[in-house]
Amino acid sequence: MNKNIMLNINLVRIIQKHLALLFFSSLLFYSSLLLATENKAKVENPIRIVMSAAFVSDAGLDVYNDIFLYLGNKLGHKVEFVSGFSYETINTMLDMGMVDVGFICGLPYTMKKDIPQPSVELLLAPVMKNPKYKDKPIYYSYIIVRKDSKFNNFRDLKRSHFVFTDEISNSGYNMPRAHLVDIGETTGFFSKVTRSGSHEESIRLVASGKADVSAVDSLVYDYDMLNNPEFANQTKVIKILGPAGIPPIVVSTKTPLTLRKKIRDVLIGMKNDAEGKIILEKALVDRFIIVDDSNYDGIRRMNKKAHDAGYRVIR
Fold it and tell me: What are the tens digits of pLDDT across the range 158-183?
């Protein structure tokens, strides 16, 4: 073969080799750049989670913070967790896309879901470990009074001082209001009605004698009785209302669909992960499940019942 041809062939091979190396080097560089950009985005655009007083008392916030840290670690994503806001403020945060995920009360969920263009979608719901929840995504409203109180049943509460959590709390307002409609007491049943802002504060006010009675979330009451019993131990439950659909986990419609799926999958998978299971047990949760919107129809019916009776404000 002609020497010039051989040289040209070798030269072509050398050029091809260098081009291949250049291609793979460029590919590696751009892959690293893409990964760095993605990681930067995960830090600069964290998953933002808000939690209402419907889920747990202040004493239990660290447990839920562990859930959110777990979520962030599994997704390789920074997570920011905020709490302590009123139900209405949380609604606004979800409307504006200021948060991605909300652990919220069932009544605000139905109010937001039932408008023409809802700003939230139902993501998951917890199922609690305690057998009284029947392995279903439900909970109760506990009517509580001080342990040494003269009140022993709901009828005894006539002319008493009622403290509630929030006007759009299901267990703290919607459920007792529907019960008052059921028993025909829609005018002046209580002598005084005040707002506390949280179930934990309602428990404190009843325990200290600053209020006679309250309707509190069974999830919060259960947690406090086990882990923060100072005030809960000074109260007793005289009436159980419910069950109703448990406070759900919702996601903002502004949150990307791929991220919603990843969040859902990690939370569902906690049940089958050793670390996740330990965290769930601390929160008294058995597992998170996908739940149908119809789980909250009972809440809708109670709210409608009060509105139809012209009894929107407890008094």
Answer: 999 999 999 999 999 999 999 999 99
Superfamily of domain 45-131+247-294: Periplasmic binding protein-like II (3.40.190.10)
**Span 108-133, pLDDT tens digits:** 999 999 999 999 999 999 999 999 99
Lowest mean pLDDT among 8-12, 183-187, 244-248, 295-299: 8-12
The pTM (predicted TM-score) of the whole model is 0.85
Taking the alpha carbons at both ends of the chain, their separation in whole angstroms is 106
Residue 249 and residue 267 in contact, taking contact as beta carbons nearer than 8 Å: yes
Following DSSP, what letter does each residue of 55-89 receive, concatenated? T--GGGHHHHHHHHHHHHHHHT--EEEEE---HHH
Three-state DSSP at 144 gives strand
CA 98 to chain centroid, in Å, comes to: 15
The torsion angles phi and psi of 249, rounded to 5 degrees, stand at -105, 125
Range 132-137, long-range pairs (CB < 8 A, 24+ positions) = 133/243, 133/246, 135/286, 136/243, 137/245, 137/246, 137/289, 137/291, 137/295
CATH of 138-245+303-308 among 2.60.40.2470, 3.30.420.10, 3.40.190.10, 3.10.129.10: 3.40.190.10
CA distance 117 to 315: 33
Q: Domain map of the chain by residue range? A: 1-44, 45-131+247-294, 138-245+303-308
